[in-house]
Specification:
Number of domains: 1
Structural class: alpha+beta
Distance between the termini: 30 Å
Largest sheet: 4 strands, antiparallel
Keywords: Membrane, Transmembrane, Transmembrane helix
Number of strands: 4
Shape: elongated
Radius of gyration: 22 Å
Oligomer: single chain
Transmembrane segments: 6-25, 32-54
Strand content: 15-25%
Protein name: DUF3139 domain-containing protein
Number of helices: 2
Helix content: 40-55%
């Protein structure tokens, strides 16, 4: 399941639970449960608006780090990077696809773990 779908499911379950609690409370306490529902809606909207921006910013800094590591490890080679933010599924673990100019038939996917460049996958291109 994708992380955004999971976040939506959790939000809907929490919203339903708050509505049920609101119906079970006495009339003078319902106002506070409606305020809690409104706060949940505002918090969810804030997360939905800011999460893509934060993810894009983190991905850009990830690409800069990968490019620096590739320059250190392969100083005399040229490459192209596929900058697809959805390449790796977990929310803030990224991968980048790199194709070296001297080896155009192979695609390498790299990740960063503890500041070190790791080859995540290798795929032969047709």
């Amino acid at each position: 399941m994708e992380f955004n779908a999971f976040r939506l499911i959790v939000f809907i379950i929490a919203l339903i639970a708050l509505f049920i609690v609101a119906l079970l409370l006495k009339k003078n306490w319902r106002k506070w449960s409606y305020i809690a529902i409104l706060a949940l809606l505002i918090a969810y909207a804030a997360v939905e608006i800011t999460a893509p921006m934060i993810r894009a910013h983190n991905y850009e800094s990830f690409l800069i780090k990968v490019e620096n590591k590739l320059n250190e490890q392969y100083p005399n080679q040229k490459w192209t990077m596929n900058k697809d933010i959805n390449l790796y599924s977990f929310p803030y673990d990224f991968a980048v696809e790199v194709i070296f100019e001297n080896d155009p038939n192979v695609s390498y996917q790299y990740t960063l773990e503890d500041g070190k460049l790791h080859e995540y996958a290798r795929m032969e291109l047709e």
